[in-house]
């Protein structure tokens, strides 16, 4: 089942709104498979099984679950072997008002936050030592504690997404010759109020 272009936003993210779709991606293996298909697809389930250290039957089961909610689709390679692909560049979701959707969205959000929190340490050990001086100087982080309303925080997130949109949507032909892939992580973590 091909992805309906309607649920893709302006940067190509798959917009999730129902509880079943959110629960589907809240599974760590399914999120990993979706990420791999998104970045490397079209890709075979046997290649995905090797990348994830899973048996192919398990991977096929999870890919079928992703397919059932329209996140990935099958395509035939030149060799006739089934490959998995997606048009989505990422995912976008908000916590819905209804209770079931809230639970599913919060599960997915927590799982993604803990998974992606490991990326900076992995990058520092594996990628940073390989950088030339110019790229090492360009790398960095931002850490600030602000006092914001929920609307202000959502506004900052929206502003960042709009600012990055021209870079996430440009084609390979529009890129400068000296580009390299860069991952930008932003964590927005409201803290529980403390009594003073």
Task: Please explain how this structure is put together.
With 196 residues, the chain is mostly helical. It is built from eight helices and four strands; from the N terminus they run βααααβββαααα. The protein has helices spanning 19-25, 28-40, 45-52, 56-68, 99-117, 119-126, 133-138, 150-169, and strands at 13-16, 73-76, 82-85, 90-93. The protein has a two-stranded parallel ribbon. Helix 1 (19-25) packs parallel to helix 5 (99-117) and helix 3 (45-52) crosses helix 4 (56-68). The radius of gyration is 19 Å and the shape is globular.
Strand order of the largest sheet: 1-4
The radius of gyration computed from the alpha-carbon positions, rounded to a whole number of angstroms, is 19 Å
Proportion of strand residues? 5-15%
Query: What's the helical proportion of residues?
Result: 40-55%
Give the overall average pLDDT.
90
* Element order: H for helix, E for strand: EHHHHEEEHHHH
Number of helices: 8
What is shown here, in short?
With 196 residues, this protein is mostly helical.
Question: Which structural traits does this protein have?
Answer:
mainly alpha; two-stranded parallel sheet; 4 strands; 48% helix
Chain-wise SSE layout:
Elements: E1 13-16, H1 19-25, H2 28-40, H3 45-52, H4 56-68, E2 73-76, E3 82-85, E4 90-93, H5 99-117, H6 119-126, H7 133-138, H8 150-169
Parallel strand pairs: 1-4
Antiparallel strand pairs: 2-3
